[in-house]
Amino acid sequence: MSGTHDIDTPRGPARVTLHPAATAAGARGLLLLGHGAGGGIGAPDLLAATTAATAAGFDVGLVEQPYRVAGRRAPAPAGHLDEAWLAVAAAMRKDRDLPLVQGGRSSGARVACRTAAATGATGVLCLAFPLHPPGKPERTRLPELDGAGVPVLVVQGRADRFGVPGDGPQRQVVLVDGDHGLRKEHAALKAAVGEWLAGPVSPDRRRAPRSG
């Protein structure tokens, strides 16, 4: 199923634009991606990640939060974003027996980290994770990354003024040229996403029988 779908949430209707897997065997997983605080699902890095994921056999849903669907630019409070995301994830999985990976850019990456345990996601993809407000490293959001509880891939611009996280026990960080907009090196972004989806969060790897 492809196209655009409105989904009711406790915070108003959200919208999902679905891009089907581009593999002959069909989808082997579902990737949901959210937008940044002031941007939309047309962000270049989101589109590059979508291309990589569909090529890797994932259906990709680009999620517009209710405040964006309603035409508002100012983001909703974090709790409202998380509530809406949980409703979208539940609706998208209702008729799909597919492993879920979730993520997003900037604010959307934070939502994905905070809700990973509740949605049962097997991994989180963070594009331009805002580690701290510009110039305020003491206000770190690292606990959100650490708290995802599943494998995390972070693709970050080397000159990101929101900070650059380091690798962690379940976290791989890929640095590319550029800043928070991630408007450069989309080939490197696609390669990183494709390799990660085929590695730590691969549905095929998770279903592989254990050797005795």
Task: Sum this structure up briefly.
Helix content is 32%, strand content 22%. It has 212 residues and is of the alpha/beta class.
Topology summary:
Elements: E1 3-7, E2 14-19, E3 29-34, H1 44-55, E4 58-64, H2 66-69, H3 78-93, E5 100-105, H4 107-119, E6 124-127, H5 142-146, E7 152-157, E8 171-176, H6 186-197, H7 203-207
Parallel strand pairs: 3-4, 3-5, 5-6, 6-7, 7-8
Antiparallel strand pairs: 1-2, 2-4
Helix pairs in contact: 1-6, 3-4
Structural description of this entry:
With 212 residues, this protein is an alpha/beta fold. It is 32% helix and 22% strand. It is built from 7 helices and 8 strands; from the N terminus they run βββαβααβαβαββαα. It has helices spanning 44-55, 66-69, 78-93, 107-119, 142-146, 186-197, 203-207, and strands spanning 3-7, 14-19, 29-34, 58-64, 100-105, 124-127, 152-157, 171-176. The chain has an 8-stranded mixed beta sheet, sandwiched between helices. Strand 5 (100-105), helix 4 (107-119) and strand 6 form a beta-alpha-beta unit. Helix 1 (44-55) packs across helix 6 and helix 3 crosses helix 4 (107-119). The N and C termini lie far apart (39 Å). Mean pLDDT is 93; it is low at 207-212.
